[in-house]
Amino acid sequence: MTMSVPAARVTILIGSGDLWRHRPLSGEIVRRARAAGLNGASVLHGVGGFGASCTIHKTRLFSLVNEQSIEIVIHDGA
């Protein structure tokens, strides 16, 4: 038996320093996803990567500036 269930998945990529009204943007996105009644959301912190600026970001143990990439995955389905 095969079941077909409509589902949606959204991936949002932001930086760890991105803020919304002086709070982390990732927390605000997750809060709004929950308030909208979606099934779930996950926040994943990257250890390395690069973006449009082509600057490589990676986690450093004793760095004063530690801009990590953050992936927010929101999913919803019946």
**Helical amount:** 10-25%
CATH architecture: 2-Layer Sandwich
Q: What's the helix count?
A: 1
Characterize the overall form. flat
Percentage of residues in DSSP E strands: 35-45%
CATH class: Alpha Beta
Q: In whole angstroms, how far apart are the ends?
A: 18 Å
Structural class: mainly beta
Give an overview in words:
The protein has 1 helix and 7 strands. The chain is mostly beta strands and 78 residues long. Strands 1-7-4 form a 3-stranded antiparallel sheet, with helices on one face. The model has no long low-confidence stretch (mean pLDDT 84).
Summarize the model shown.
The protein is mostly beta strands and 78 residues long. It is built from 1 helix and 7 strands.
Question: Main attributes?
Answer:
78 residues; mainly beta; Alpha-Beta Plaits; 1 helix; flat
Topology:
Layout: E1 7-15, E2 19-20, E3 23-24, H1 25-35, E4 40-45, E5 48-50, E6 56-58, E7 69-77
Antiparallel strand pairs: 1-7, 2-3, 4-7, 5-6
